[in-house]
Design brief:
alpha+beta; two-stranded antiparallel sheet; 2 strands; elongated
Amino acid sequence: MRIAIALGQPVTPLPEGNIYLGFVFARAPTPGAVETALRAAHAELDFVIEPAQDTGRGSGA
């Protein structure tokens, strides 16, 4: 598994966001086995995305 977003980096939902959380790849002898492996890997994922904290810094405008 590859995590494509750095810890602490803000996550913006699509379509506004342009960063994926990560990717899961699988290799197996058949397409069905690949799908099974990907589903099993996905079931192990647990994302915790917390709301952004206000830093108290305004835009200055």
